[in-house]
């Protein structure tokens, strides 16, 4: 297996006990901007093919801007965390399981107590944005606020079509080789994500009705040129969470932290400042 080689900063690892949805796990994580001392924590939740290494320097830059510490980690199946066994298929509610089971277990294992969790911000991208929304809905008193970047609230045709095209690229171009820099078991990471999104049963996936319990400050961000989702995603969030604030970015695709980092950082910093 190949290990990620894109960053010189070594990751740490923590062991999680079995949960309702997963067996024992080894989770890759890294603290960023530790110079912020006892400042609130921003937890970064990566996209469907992301990992600690794939975030690169953006969490550090954002945390410096916000004056926060940062926690980045690789979800099970990604990066250097416990890989998905190749005969295991993610269930339709896999993102709910991540929010309900894995995040609280990770916080317990890292000794992040309830006082720290109430000061915490979640920053999630794509699938990680969906998990951010679900955690905020499940634990409405356990966060200072949340930022969902290009989140998925329901399965759209554009999402499924783009994911099908990505599968073709993975199997016919050098995409697999490129992704192998970021994952110890690249096939585990890719097919875990790709198979569930292309599962016909996933077309019925919809978490809009679960968002009504979100009470924390919430910012939802979407690029106008996102080929994995339309503005209907964050507009739906606004319909379910009346206090949610929306930012719609021009000249921006599915990854605002790479496509429009200055505009994204400005939007997040302004949003957090208003809450403080």
TrEMBL record:
The organism's place on the tree of life at top rank: Bacteria
Enzyme class: lyase
Pfam (any one): Abhydrolase_6
GO MF annotation terms: 2-succinyl-6-hydroxy-2,4-cyclohexadiene-1-carboxylate synthase activity
Protein's name in the database: 2-succinyl-6-hydroxy-2, 4-cyclohexadiene-1-carboxylate synthase
Gene coding for it: menH_3
Enzyme Commission number, as recorded: 4.2.99.20
Domain AB hydrolase-1, chain residue ranges per copy: 43-267
């Amino acid at each position: 297996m190949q290990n990620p080689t894109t960053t010189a900063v070594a990751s740490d690892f923590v062991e999680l006990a079995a949960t309702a949805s997963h067996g024992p796990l080894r989770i890759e994580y890294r603290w960023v901007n530790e110079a912020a001392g006892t400042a609130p924590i921003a937890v970064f939740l990566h996209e469907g093919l992301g990992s600690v290494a794939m975030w690169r320097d953006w969490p550090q830059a954002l945390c410096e801007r916000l004056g926060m510490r940062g926690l980045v980690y690789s979800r099970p199946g990604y990066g250097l965390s416990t890989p998905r066994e190749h005969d295991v298929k993610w269930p339709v509610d896999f993102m709910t399981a991540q929010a309900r089971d894995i995040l609280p277990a990770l916080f317990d294992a890292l000794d992040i107590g309830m006082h720290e969790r109430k000061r915490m911000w979640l920053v999630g991208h794509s699938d990680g944005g969906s998990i951010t929304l679900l955690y905020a809905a499940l634990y409405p008193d356990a966060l200072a606020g949340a930022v969902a970047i290009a989140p998925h609230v329901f399965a759209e045709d554009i999402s499924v079509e783009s994911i099908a095209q990505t599968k073709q690229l993975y199997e016919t171009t050098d995409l697999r080789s490129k992704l192998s820099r970021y994952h110890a078991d690249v096939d585990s990471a890719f097919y875990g994500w790709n198979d569930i999104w292309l599962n016909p049963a996933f077309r019925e996936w919809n978490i809009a009705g679960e968002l009504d319990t979100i009470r924390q400050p919430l910012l939802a961000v979407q690029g106008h040129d996102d080929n994995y989702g339309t503005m209907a995603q964050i507009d739906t969030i606004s319909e379910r969470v009346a206090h949610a604030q929306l930012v719609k970015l021009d000249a921006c695709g599915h990854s605002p932290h790479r496509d429009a980092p200055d505009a994204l950082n400005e939007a997040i910093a302004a949003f957090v400042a208003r809450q403080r």
